[in-house]
Every structure is written in structure tokens, then in C-alpha cells.
Amino acid sequence: MSDPRTAPDPPSPEAITEAVPPPAKAADARAAAAAFVESLDPPPSPSAVQDLLLLASELVTNAVRHAGAVTALAFGADEKALYVQVADPSPDRPRRRVPDMTGAAGGFGWPLVLKLARKVTVRNHMGQGKIISATMAR
């Protein structure tokens, strides 16, 4: 996995092929991710599908929890990778926090995103929030 602070540009717009309605909760993101991978031929490996569902779920959970909403969710694929992009209204960048072992304050999501993805980029979104793009092996 590359260092997300020095990762190259996000996936090209051609790789992102399916935008879905912004989800209000993680379960909606998982359902959208599952529907997306069902359309792929050849299908990704079962472990890649599980990882994509978890990655989409964590990105959406973080956006809802820390930015108040998801403004866009999109998926893409090519022969070697799966892509997910989540936009939210906050310009604040994700940051690592010490995980709260009681579960009250979280701190597990962003490290999990960085572990699951081969590449993660965060960029401004037209001065109104940010887009997080994650690339993972297919």
C-alpha cells in the first residue's frame, strides 16, 4: 500500500463509472457497493468484494459522523483495481485518532480505510467539502 500522503493522482474519471444516490447510512453504501460488483464481468474475488463493502461502509460512516452527510458516492473498476469515491460537505481532512476502546468516540474507521486501500487521496471539492478516493486491488 502506498503512503496516502504521497499517493499519486486519484483514479481517472474514466475509471469511475457508476454514481449512486448519496447514502444516508453505511448499510445503504454497502448495498450500493454490492449492486455495483454484481454488474462486473469478470467478478472481483470474494475477498475483494468483502473489502469493497467494508471500505465503502467506513468512508460513508466517517462522512456522516464527521461531516454530517455524504454528498456523492461513486464506484469504478478496471482490470486490476476497484475504486470508490465519497464526497462530503466538510473541508476538514481525515486524521488518525487514538481509538476509543469503549466504542464511544470511535477512532477505528480511518486506520481501517488506510489498511484496506492500496491508495487513498483526499482533495478539495469545488471549495465545498472534499472527495476521498480509494483504490483497492480487484
Automatic annotation (TrEMBL):
The keyword Secreted does not apply. InterPro entries: Anti-sigma-factor_SerPK, HATPase_C_sf, HATPase_dom. Residues 24-135 form the Histidine kinase/HSP90-like ATPase domain. GO terms for molecular function: ATP binding. Residues 1-24 are annotated as: Disordered. Keywords: ATP-binding, Kinase, Nucleotide-binding, Serine/threonine-protein kinase, Transferase. The keyword Cell division does not apply. This is ATP-binding protein.
